[in-house]
UniProtKB/TrEMBL annotation:
Reaction catalysed by this enzyme: D-ribulose 5-phosphate + ATP = D-ribulose 1,5-bisphosphate + ADP + H(+)
Classification via PROSITE patterns: PHOSPHORIBULOKINASE
Residues annotated as signal peptide: none
Stretches that traverse the bilayer: none
EC number: 2.7.1.19
Matching CDD domains: PRK
Organism, scientific name: Chondrus crispus (Carrageen Irish moss)
Gene3D superfamilies registered for this protein in UniProt: P-loop containing nucleotide triphosphate hydrolases
Protein name: Phosphoribulokinase
Stored Pfam families: PRK
Length: 377
């Protein structure tokens, strides 16, 4: 990335925590980018999940919906949205973690002070020089320049773990996969694309479980929305884990967004639209909407079990989804039709991902008071 900024720099708080992070900096002035791009203040969104749970896939859909050409740099930057991976704040390189006998999920393996100071700086409109964790080499590379943007997503294992970082967030999302689905997706990716053996994949999932339970999973209790991805209930004893039941749990008392609903807000609705208006083949598709509690919180649940046969017919379902923040009739369907082969496009994962992207847009509009122009690629 070319440094075109005229920022002056100070060492970032937390940079002394690791020799790898010694060059991490924060600009002492507000970036010129703000005025150039007309940014009111960056809106910060956290997306948390374990490794291999579909964060990158989801965020590719989100950046597409914001219609922005995204750079192929380590930190993807579009004209409207940038996506920071919090793995960049790992304290140790891969070898160092092995020596210290910690997993990347452990609090002790991450530089939360640096993360908090840099995310807060971006929120204030300042540029940062941020470390890079290189997943190919397992090493920590030279810092890169990250400038403020309209929306900055921070994704990874811990966006809501540290209270200082959490306070910087305007909207928080947790992707919660049932173990069976997590294993199926991991196997598909790590065997097919990364050449790992089945044994190694299962051993890695098993060895991460205690730290996952202690440091990552609890974040879901206090998020604006949680997307649960579970095995279907439409097929008894389904082994393949290809048909999914996807639940969107929406905090009823969240400050920056209003939950979507099906037909009638506050009612409990089970809906099987298969028939004249929606083509279905086995096992079909079933929707549910209604109130529930989630860790003592009131939530509105929107659930999709099964898949769509013909994506363009989704528009019929869309007409019954209320308060999704769409800009025109059929926007959700059109967005899915733009990427028909992306993972999840024909089931609840894709549909709910698009809904969450629209929520992000609504949060941005609410926080800044500025409408986002309709676009998308
Ligand atoms: N909705 C979906 N339906 C089916 N498969 C999916 C879906 N989303 C993601 N996957 C698959 O799961 C695997 C992991 O997805 P992805 O790389 O997006 O996860 P990640 O959380 O970004 O992982 P990491 O943190 O390890 O980089 C990929 O093989 C992807 O194709
Ligand atoms: O949980 C993870 C989040 O992506 C990774 O395992 C962690 O970042 C370490 O990466 P690597 O295995 O490439 O050293």
């Amino acid at each position: 990335m070319v440094n075109v900024s005229t920022d002056t720099w100070v060492k970032a708080p937390g940079a002394d925590k690791s020799s790898h992070h010694a060059n991490a900096k924060i600009a002492s002035n507000v970036s010129e980018v703000l005025a150039k791009k007309g940014i009111e203040r960056p809106v910060i969104i956290g997306v948390a999940a374990d490794s291999g749970c579909g964060k990158s896939t989801f965020l590719r859909r989100v950046t597409g919906i914001f219609g922005t050409e995204v750079s192929k740099t380590h930190t993807p930057v579009g004209n409207f949205i940038s996506v920071i991976c919090l793995d960049d704040y790992h304290l140790h390189d891969r070898m160092g973690r092995r020596e210290a006998r910690v997993t990347a999920l452990d609090e002790a393996a991450n530089n939360f002070e640096l993360m908090a100071s840099q995310i807060q700086a971006l929120r204030e409109g300042k540029s940062i020089m941020k470390p890079i964790y290189n997943h190919e080499t397992g090493e920590i590379d030279e810092c890169e320049l990250v400038e403020p943007n309209h929306i900055i997503v921070i994704e990874g294992l811990h966006p809501m773990y540290d209270t200082r970082v959490k306070k910087s967030l305007d909207f928080s999302v947790y992707l919660d996969l049932a173990d069976e689905v997590k294993i199926a997706w991991k196997i598909q990716r790590d065997m097919a694309e990364r050449g790992h053996s089945l044994e190694n994949i299962l051993a890695s999932i098993e060895s991460r479980k205690p730290d996952f339970a202690q440091f990552v999973d609890p974040q879901k209790r206090d998020c604006d929305v949680v997307m649960e991805i579970l095995p279907t209930r439409l097929i008894p004893d389904d082994d393949e884990k290809k048909v999914l039941r996807v639940r969107l749990l929406q905090d009823e008392n969240s400050e920056n967004f209003d939950p979507i609903f099906l037909y009638d807000e506050g009612s409990t609705i089970d809906w099987v639209p298969c028939g004249r208006k929606l083509t279905c083949s086995y096992p079909g598709i079933k929707f549910h909407y209604g109130p529930d509690t989630y860790y003592d919180k009131e939530v509105a649940v929107f659930e999709v079990d099964g898949g769509f046969e013909k994506l363009d017919e989704m528009v019929y379902v869309e007409t019954h989804i209320e308060r999704a923040g769409t800009k025109f009739f059929g926007e959700i369907t059109q967005s899915l039709l733009r990427n028909p082969t992306a993972p999840g496009s024909k089931n609840g994962t894709g549909l709910i991902q698009v809904i969450m992207a629209m929520m992000m847009r609504s949060v941005y509009e609410k926080v800044t008071g500025k409408p986002v122009a309709v676009s998308g690629n």
